[in-house]
Amino acid sequence: MGSMQQAPQRGARRSVATCVLLVASLTMLGLLAVCKARPEESNESRSDPEAGVDPQRYERLVQRNLDPRVSLPESLIAARMQEWRDLPIGERIARWAELYLERGDATYVFGLQEGGYVADSLLVQDFKQDCVLFSYRCTELARATTPRQAISRALETRFAGADPGAVVSPAGAVDYDHGAHLDFSLDIVRSGLWGSDVTAVVGVAEKDDVGTNRYAAGSFAYIPTAKLRLEHLQDGDLLYFVFDEENERGQRMRSEYGLVIGHQGIARRRAGAVDVIHAARSDLPGEYSGDRVVRVPLLTYLQRVESFKGIIVTRIAE
Q: Which residue has the higher pLDDT, 272 or 221?
């Protein structure tokens, strides 16, 4: 039904978050690293990672990630970027999410698994996605004006603050064990790189009074499902699903692994309601079959998936 973040350990590649129902694979974990938080920046103010990488090495990075075996057709990406260039950023994010949904050719593959983007040291794997890569890719494509620039956006946000030359290997592979890579979704929220935290704007937010061994009680806020105000959510808002400590699975993820957030998705408004579009590993009976990108009413998802008690929301601005 979603993705669960993993607790880290040395010697394994890391993911930002992992799927909730991929619980059995908690041995493939990565080294903790927290990128220094910084406020959201405009595209124009961001540094150019290409400038910090040997040109041949950078070209190999681009070619690896624009390879048709892992990327949507470059011509399709360029055409949609041109077509949607004047739309608000949130609308662009939502349209990229819908594009993956409508194509239906992306299967669910957890990033650390064989063929996953982390395991293969890729920035792009459009046909094998988990919930984190899905959110990454939709925002990177929405923020870029060319397919190549989307690769740069991926490098500069996923490894923010790092020397690009230290992240990209001579073969053009990226190192997810690099210390700049964020492992926990709450750290993604706090970084500001994926938008401002608007949790208090879209509902009646409460402090989480339990916390984990990584996050102190009261150190972050979330919106309980019953206090969510759908009318305040916007297209393209990024949704982070918070584990419920009163649920057996939620409590286990919190107490054993220090996890707060177990899944991510993208908001899309429809006929007065709000859906979540996300990469789902498991079925939600009566709503969808898993192992693909799916769409479901947000409240239905929250009410059916009992391991979550509410959401945190970030919003990217131009």
A: 221
Whose CA is closest to 153, among 45, 228, 300?
45
**Closest C-alpha to 169, from 111, 134, 112, 120:** 120
User: What single letter denotes the amino acid at residue 247?
Assistant: N
> Is the pLDDT score of 32 beyond 50?
no
CA 156 to chain centre: 15
pLDDT value at 31 more than 80: no
- Span 226-250, pLDDT tens digits: 999 999 999 999 999 999 999 999 9
Residues 6+ apart with CB under 8 A from 178: 33, 159, 162, 166, 167
Those residues with Cβ within 8 angstroms of residue 169's Cβ, 6 or more apart along the chain or in another chain: 57, 121, 175
CATH code given to domain 37-182: 1.10.3670
The domain ranges of the chain are 37-182, 188-315
Domains 37-182 and 188-315 share a fold: no
Q: Name the helix (H) or strand (E) containing 165.
A: helix 164-167
Domain boundaries 188-315, CATH class: mainly beta
Our measurement of the distance from residue 189's CA atom to the centroid of its chain's CA atoms, rounded to an integer in Å, reads: 10
The 10s digit of each residue's pLDDT in 117-173 is 999 999 999 999 999 999 999 999 999 999 999 999 999 999 998 998 899 999 999
Report, in angstroms and rounded to the nearest whole number, the Rg of the chain calculated over CA atoms: 18
Q: Is the pLDDT of residue 25 over 70?
A: no
The pTM of the full predicted model, rounded to 2 decimals, is 0.86
